[in-house]
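Tokens for chain A. Residues wanted.
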């Protein structure tokens, strides 16, 4: 069954787009969760008093965005809701938890090791300085979303692989008394390599969003460096721009 959808025939917004927007809202709110099956296009068109081509256009719009999938013999189903994240100094784990997206973390590696030169420069450390290094695969509703590689200088906080499976890194830092104040961040894009594609369940060469971040505490001490990749098909960053 598909929840009721209201359309405004006096609005300049095309009817197909009104339907698509409402369906997207229902998907993002969880009212239509992954696996939810929509009524067929003919039934939906009749319910809304729309033409079948208009209804087909609305459904195809969401199929193209990766929110719906058509399956022969099954019908049209919800695939997932995209993760939209504001660019701010926060933990992905906590953001997903607040959005009721059931975050889960798999620890791929964890240990103390000398930092590479580029990471040492970002953390303002001498090359070869030891840091806690860990790589995590972050899931949202049991679907892989991000591959995250982080370094925290030894002495900043006591961390463990077990704690990182249950909490976001920034929450653990705050619990250790670290007062996060500001971060430098760069967002780019590139194609997925073979290992990244396998872990993120994407095809090799699929688009990925990348993020490099160095976070500082209230004393302007670099306390964390992160290099993360996100599935562009499942994730986006949001910015608020103001004029001066």
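Reply:
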């Amino acid at each position: 069954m598909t929840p009721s959808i209201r359309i405004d025939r006096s609005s300049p917004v095309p009817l197909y787009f009104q339907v698509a927007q409402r369906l997207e809202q229902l998907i993002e709110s969880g009212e239509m969760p992954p696996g939810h099956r929509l009524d067929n296009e003919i039934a939906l068109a009749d319910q809304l008093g729309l033409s079948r081509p208009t209804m087909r256009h609305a459904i195809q719009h969401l199929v193209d965005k990766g929110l719906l999938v058509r399956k022969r013999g099954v019908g049209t189903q919800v695939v997932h809701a995209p993760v939209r994240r504001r660019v701010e100094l926060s933990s992905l784990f906590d953001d997903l938890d607040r959005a009721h997206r059931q975050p889960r973390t798999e620890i791929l590696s964890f240990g103390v090791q000398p930092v590479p030169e580029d990471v040492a420069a970002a953390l303002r450390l001498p090359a070869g300085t030891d840091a806690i290094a860990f790589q995590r695969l972050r899931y949202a509703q049991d679907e892989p979303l991000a591959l995250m590689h982080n370094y925290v200088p030894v002495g900043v906080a006591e961390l463990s692989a077990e704690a990182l499976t249950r909490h976001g890194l920034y929450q653990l830092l705050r619990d250790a008394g670290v007062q996060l104040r500001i971060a430098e961040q760069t967002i780019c894009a590139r194609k997925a390599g073979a290992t990244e594609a396998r872990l993120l369940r994407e095809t090799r060469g699929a688009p990925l969003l990348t993020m490099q971040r160095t976070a500082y505490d209230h004393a302007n001490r670099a306390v964390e460096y992160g290099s993360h990749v996100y599935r562009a098909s499942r994730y986006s960053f949001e910015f608020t721009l103001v004029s001066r």
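The longest strand covers residues 103-114. The two ends are 49 Å apart (CA to CA).
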